[in-house]
Amino acid sequence: MPLATPHYLIDEAALDRNLARVDRLRAASGAKCLMALKAFATWSTFAQIAPHMDGSTSSSLNEVKLGREKFGGETHAYSVAWADHEIDEAIAQADKIIFNSIGQLERFHEKAAHLPVGLRVNPGVSHSHFDLADPARPYSRLGERDLSRVEAVMDRLSGFMIHCNCENDSFDSFAALLDRFEERLGHLFERIEWVSFGGGIHFTGENYPLDALAARLRAFAEKYRLQVYLEPGDAIVTGTTTLEVSVLDIVHNEKAVAIVDSAVEAHMLDLLVYRESGSVAPDAGPHRYVIAGKSCLAGDEFGEFDFPAPLAVGDRISLLDAGGYTMVKKNWFNGVPMPAIAIRRKNGTVELVRSFDYADYVTSLS
Ligand SMILES: *Cc1c(COP(=O)(O)O)cnc(C)c1O
């Protein structure tokens, strides 16, 4: 019997294709790749992912702990701001700790004296299509901006983290950014042992010039004699996961609207945050529908798509690219049933790895 909807369905074979590209990049560039748990933390898949990566990186103490416990390898601990009650545990679980500001570095560096300590530096340039996700946006708090202040603390630092890319699928754009980093920070790169260029580089895409990226990263690492890290999140899971939903009702209001057993805000939140449309395949045919969720949000729409045949109640729809920034953001808005999580194994069988019920809803509040 097919698994009930809604559920997220992760495809192991698709994940393998992305991971093969990660392996190629690591081998050709010498760069280390850390999984950014912020984008994807469905730990049932870590046994498959971790052997192709060097460890994990984090944006909170919970992610540090999850990385240490479930991912293995090197655990990088970063947070936009560590709280006093978090810092000891973060340091105890981490292989490197990265501070977001000189204020945090000064507050906590003595506790971390036995660890490699990094600082997030904000070079003031970026590649992002969205102001909301642009670390170089006006008044950004993401990373230290004042290089003269960075110079003054260099003796406490072994590396930098510079995260300035968001969904960047252009190698030329990344290479140009790297040129700008070198202009501004080259004299400091000579004095550190490692630099992480963060996430947001979409190098697992089919047409991405992986060899050019690898050559550029290798040349950079050799020039400054340091270890390069990348922190891909979305690039690891892009194209691997669908949100499987079923049609519950079809209504007409100038357009045909199919209501499904899911909700955008609860299960694919970023479509709303970034005002994007979801996608289906092949999205072709003479029958056009708005695919809408069952929450009471008026704009709860996954998108408008074409289908080869009329939809009927009970039909199943696969919403594509539901891996990154979905399961880590899902919520109980409207009490809509939480999608289960399933994995399509390489032999084709679909295995349910987690389901949620009323008790989970109740325990999410008090
Ligand atoms: C968000 C983030 C990542 C992962 O970004 P992706 O776009 O998912 O690759 C990596 N590092 C840092 C510091 C981040 O904030």
UniProtKB/TrEMBL annotation:
The keyword Lyase applies. Its main location: cytoplasm. It is found in: Cytoplasm. It is an enzyme of class 4 (lyase). Its cofactor is pyridoxal 5'-phosphate. Pfam families: Orn_DAP_Arg_deC (PF00278). Residues 241-323 form the Orn/DAP/Arg decarboxylase 2 C-terminal domain. Its EC number is 4.1.1.96. The keyword Lyase applies. It catalyses: carboxyspermidine + H(+) = spermidine + CO2; carboxynorspermidine + H(+) = norspermidine + CO2. Keywords: Cytoplasm, Decarboxylase, Lyase, Polyamine biosynthesis, Pyridoxal phosphate, Spermidine biosynthesis. It comes from the Bacteria. Catalyzes the decarboxylation of carboxynorspermidine and carboxyspermidine. Homodimer. Belongs to the Orn/Lys/Arg decarboxylase class-II family. NspC subfamily. This is Carboxynorspermidine/carboxyspermidine decarboxylase.
